[in-house]
Write a structure and sequence with these properties.
Radius of gyration: 31 Å
Binding site for ATP: 121
Keywords: ATP-binding, Kinase, Nucleotide-binding, Serine/threonine-protein kinase, Transferase
Largest sheet: 6 strands, antiparallel
Protein name: Serine/threonine protein kinase
Mean pLDDT: 78
Shape: globular
CATH class of the domain at 173-370: Mainly Alpha
CATH topology of the domain at 173-370: Transferase(Phosphotransferase), domain 1
GO molecular function, one term: protein serine/threonine kinase activity
Domain Protein kinase: 90-362
Amino acid sequence: MLALSPDDWLTVEPLLDAALALPPDERQRFLDNLVPAQQRWRPTLERLLQAEAAAADAGFLSRAASLTGGTEGPVADAPQWQAAQKVGPWVLVEELGRGGMASVWRAQPHSGDFQREVALKLPHSPAPGWLERLKRERDLLARLQHAGIARLYDAGVDANGLPWLAMECVQGRDVLAWCDARQASVRERVGLLLQVADALQYAHSRLVLHRDIKPANVMVQDDGQVRLLDFGIARSLASADGEAALTQLGQRPMTPEYASPEQVRGEEPGIASDVYAFGVLAYRLLAGASPYAAAAPASRHALECAVLEAEPPLLSTAATDAATRKALRGDLDAIVAKALAKEPACRYATMDALAADMRRHLAGEAVGARPPSWRYRAARLIARNRWAVGVSTLAVLALVGTTGWALYAAREARQEARRSGAMYEFLTGLFNPLREAQPDTRHRDLPARELIEDGARRVLGSLHDEPLAREQLLIDLSTLTQQLGLPDLSRQLAEERVRQARALHGTQSRAYADALLGQRDLWESAGLYEDGFKAATEALAIYQALGERDPQRLALAHLTLGGFGARLHAPGAADIDHLVTAARLLAPLPGPNLLGVVYEQLLVAHLGRGDMEAAYQAGMQGVAANRAQRGAEDWKTAASEDQVGQLALFTLRPKEADRLIRHGLQVLRKTMGPDVVILARGEANLALLAMAAGHVDEARAHVDEARRIATLPANRAMLAFGLTVEATALDVAQQSGDWAALREGCARWGSDVQAPQPALRLRVQQACAAEAIHVGDLGRARALLDQGRAVASQFFAQVPARHAVLWLREGEWLAAKGQVEDAVAHWKQVLSLDDTSIVTARAQAWADLRARQALDEPSRALARRLRVQLLDADAESGFATPLGLLRED
């Protein structure tokens, strides 16, 4: 094996990662297809892959890693890390902790001006999956910039092929030792727990679960600042890929004493598992003992049985001294017990909710974990104002308790009457804003759109003294303004609805969850999928905690999670399950609902998985559902027709595609006007149809109209539509050879292409790579192709068709470099893909082979088969462009 310098590893590491990402039986082919410039590294790669296979046979990953406090012994033949040893750019100083799979060392840079000490995490061996595992930890930590979370500084691979992570080296003690050394009070300990809760809430807001919360991973500095450590077994809420990999290797990554019941059962953990582990940490920190102290010393099996079945003693009863028992009794008993509930739905839905109860306890206010009796709330009121409360106040409170139900019923009746009156006043005020005896009726023909817009602006600034009436108006008007193409106003209304629900009902209320999900359409149109996924996760947890049974509420939560999840990551079974659950909830309900939208999202999920026929069928189910519920001339039916029309083209149904899209656009223009933003998507779809048919001028006209609509001031906030139009413009320019237009379009995206949808990013990256190759800028082309490969590997690893256009461009790049043989191999690979969604790419690969006089009989057979497919679909006119490329002369 060649001796490697750190610079060499910058070249070798991406190749090793790519090989490790492949099934073992495909790695030899990967090595065979290395370009000549990369073949010099083949012996090194073969040696590393052999080491990986040997480590797999030895069972290095039979247990989960734990960096500190683990009981496993070191792995056989593990590297013997030593002080003063160099690892990449670092020199080791002293070992800080050791586990079965990794050790953590204090380290310093061995050169340069940057001399900050770091905590260097080093695996014991190049075991299976370690590169991916540390990359996952690196990617998760890179999202987290919070004062309560140890920061990530750097990551890399040493000269022996072992990955490392350089993290903030926290100076301090674990939280138990820190509190014991200072004999911290209960109040001080609660303050530290609040810091941990805030750090966890931040991580959850970035869709990161910790999954290993325990004292050893909570360090406290001398100044009392908490640092949360070790995200080694953390996972992303937005992707289950890492969890799946661990599961396949037989791991259950957890620390048993702090594991939730669902983790012990082997179920996939969620936010509720972090809440549970935090509850165990709080129990240990406040009571000085484990909630399962009786079972922990016996055996792991006894401990797991206790976690699953035994109810922990009340927190206050586990404390050893009377003063502590008194401080813990009541509120803290209830808070910790709720966090430790066996059923996830019975715990706090978020760390924010738990922390809010702790803060209420510190402030002497009533906590949500305790039953909301009037006596309890009165006691908290008296405790906060003990010097101001006299005997007369106590008498009044007793009277209120006795007659509370009557007063409650009367108050509800008065509130309903006031709400109805406020609604009446508001609505009549739209027509008679000056409250004149004889209203001015000169504007009685004011269009409904302007009337609703005026009403929406009024409600944002009024009715603060009638919150229930205002709440209903915010709900109705945010929906109306969205449908009428007023996205900025709709967003203001939806955000105000969330603020008011939080203030009026609290963050664990049904109204707050409803308000969160009320923003779904806005997130969809703006491409804010991560925001929507996070809020839907919170909303579903609230519904589950409340025992919600309303099918429409639950369906909306599942719809948002499944639909947005399928856009955030490679669509998986969990995304499909959410959407199927939503469809099952909605299908039996009478009247219009979101069933059509659910099927549209299933279309997207199947599309992301590369199953074009399943995507088309889901889309047609959506059209049928909308037609049955709303009629053929409804705008929602029209929108679903437009969307499935593109899938009809991808499944070789060009005539049906043309009919669906044009009818959809006709209905949309009739019902919504000529400028509604959804028309931009339809025009972009027509541009793709026209290009497939060889009608370049028509395609350009559709792109121009789509751009006009997407760039209107009222539509610019709808980012997803605008980006789709720009990607289509690049496709049309590239396929038609309009290099000037392509160069101008690519300049808007820059060298680092970003877009909320991975498929959209791929479209832009491949088109701009083609432009860079055309002008001879091979360095820029290489960078764009590498970006595209990263996206395709992350999101579409199991969908070869998504890689096809990148392989096509890769061949062009290799040909430009003079590596014609390698280019030919890429083009043959594209031609061999039996996928109807990429017929133009496959035809172009044939044309490139013909131009290089590299045709052989297998390629000719593949081209003939594709030509027959297109003609059998009655598609000669609909697919004139690929048929033209498939000629043999």
